[in-house]
Amino acid sequence: MTEKLTENYSDLFADTKPLESPPEPPAPSPSVSAVAAARPVSFFRWTFEGMRASFLLRPSIALDAVPGPWQLAFLTLIASGLDVLFDRLSLSGEVQFNYQGWLIQWSLCLVTLWLAWCFAPRARLGAAQAACRVIAWFALLTWALLLPMLAYYSVMFWIKIADDSDVPAWVSDFSMSLIASLWMFAVMSKLSRHYFESWLRAFVLVLAVFVVTAVLFATADAETWLAADSEGAPVEVVPGEEESDDGTDEQEESNTPEMLEAQLHVPAWNASPILI
């Protein structure tokens, strides 16, 4: 009896199939996981990290951190406003705002973003994460380049208000522009190396941005402030419509032949009233 029961149970378990485990969900791609893992960063943290980058320090925020749309807009607009304000204070004399040059500088921002997208490591990071790095790089760059520009404007303002004897001979517009340009080149190279993972890629990117900027300022009127015209436009005087106020018209009429002939026939007592 026991042998029959054993045989029946063995046949029963032999016919059953083992339970299959549920299929595992597919692993997310690195680009999607990196974007999902991004942590929000405050507005003041972005400005602080950008100012730290001015001293060639690596940003302490995560590489996958991305500013929001409003954060990016205010970061760019406030930095641009401070640049325009300090640029005006550094200039002497009457100047006027050149809105066309200001708009040209905004077009330069679009060219910079396009160049950064071209040099971003999209093949390794993916398009989504590469775009996030370009946006974060640009947000930090707007404040990282602000400090060298403010230093240049401050020196120019000091030259304007100081006596010529107090200003060293080597301090000039050209020397300060060269120092500020080298400072900005180093800042952009360091920040680009941090986000784009290659010194060669960073160097070529920064060099391309500087070349485009130099060509733009050389071929177009991209200055924010221009010297105002001290003299008004010359007034066009049409002959015969206005009379001169300096008496030249009367003098020309008195020199006509008729007037000379009339003066010759004037009596002596009328010509010399003192003799009466």
Q: In angstroms, what separates the terminal alpha carbons? A: 179 Å
Report strand order across the widest sheet. Answer: 1-2
- Beta-strand fraction estimate: under 5%
Tell me, what's the shape?
A: globular
Question: How many beta-strand runs?
Answer: 2
Radius of gyration: 39 Å
- Return the structural class: mainly alpha
The helix fraction, in percent, is 55-70%
String of helices and strands: HHHHEHHHHHHEHHH
Average predicted local confidence, pLDDT: 78
Main pleated sheet: 2 strands, antiparallel
Describe the structure.
This protein has 276 residues and is mainly alpha-helical. The chain has a domain at 41-227. It has 13 helices and two strands. It has a two-stranded antiparallel ribbon with strand order 1-2. The longest helix is centred in the C-terminal third of the chain and has 24 residues, at 173-196. It is globular and about 55 Å long. It starts with a helix and ends in a 5-residue tail after the last helix. Mean pLDDT is 78; it is low at 30-36, 241-245 and 266-276.
Outline of the structure:
With 276 residues, the protein is mainly α. 64% of the residues lie in helices and 2% in strands.
